[in-house]
């Protein structure tokens, strides 16, 4: 499907930048337009791919291009005040060629966390196409203010978008990595997972048309009804040069070094079902219990002779049993790449312990901050006032 992507704040801008790069590399054609909005001039300058004229600096009167310093109430205020400047950039998007908006933001900071829900609300009021959010949760080690920001932004963002796709930095940061190095890998993971999903149905010239193609309307229907979504993904390398069915499997081939294991249809089906299980039960973009998900979409992608209808049907059935949902859609997305992958969009998930923990920590942080503020007012009063109250202020 074709998206108009708007990155709000630093993380949002960087992720949209990476989506443009992914689009070029994979010829997926999912980013019809890309815009970055920020209160920090330096962050906008640091982007690589988003065209200069689509980089919008807001809040200059208030913060002079220096960011809002993790104050998401200020982020929201500034977004509201300068929404016309953002709209000017949005005006350049040929919305008749776009299936949906995707507003991307890190939810722990100030600009994106506060501004993205404001923009989503504004877009929904003006346009009839769906407005989705891609919200990035901060790592648990980032501290109280980031957690509090994210918890408050989450509540607001979910309410203002047609569906909130969530990516949890916490489950993806590997130990020992530098923050920057870590983010570039994490961002790669984000664009790969959501890229395969949104790329389905977006057949480019010269590409094969799928036997049971995933259409953008199926993505939209899976996301309709609102709520929170998560994405699972699993892939396996295959050998493009091998004859049909000659799959070099990393996981089940056993030989490791390759060799044509002469797969037949049954093996292809089994491989697909095992990929579907791995995708659903492995690491999700937002960890949660998949039981109770309201809707799901299964996209199988890879060379067409490694995909089959039976595999998709089995995968779909299995997902129905696991989620208890009656709305599990599925289809394929043929791509001539040496990889078969299963991508699963689980929409309307509600059993998410990670969010409950985030809210608990946020409430604790909020209480602590109030205590500290009250205490510090008393302490300052003690410090300034001389003990015998002999001194008088000037005025
Ligand atoms: N996945 C990912 N997360 C990021 C990246 N940069 C920052 N984050 C996360 O996003 C949160 C918000 O950070 P920023 O996007 O830098 O904040 P901002 O919206 O620009 O707001 P201010 O800097 O407060 O004005 C952080 O707490 C991190 O969890 C990134 O490149 N990738």
UniProtKB/TrEMBL annotation:
Task of the protein: Involved in cell shape control.
A GO molecular-function descriptor: GTPase activity
Residue numbers binding GTP: 10-14, 110-112, 142, 169, 187
Gene Ontology BP annotations: cell division; microtubule-based process; regulation of cell shape
UniProt keyword terms in alphabetical order: Cell shape, Cytoplasm, GTP-binding, Nucleotide-binding
Domain Tubulin/FtsZ GTPase span(s) in chain numbering: 2-195
GO cellular component, as recorded: cell division site; cytoplasm; microtubule
Family of this protein: Belongs to the CetZ family.
SMART domains assigned to the protein according to its UniProt record, in alphabetical order: Tubulin (SM00864)
Region annotation (Disordered) ranges: 373-395
Name of the protein in its database record: Tubulin-like protein CetZ
Subcellular location: Cytoplasm
InterPro entries assigned to the protein according to its UniProt record, in alphabetical order: CetZ, CetZ_C, FtsZ/CetZ, Tubulin/FtsZ-like_C, Tubulin/FtsZ_GTPase_sf, Tubulin_CS, Tubulin_FtsZ_GTPase
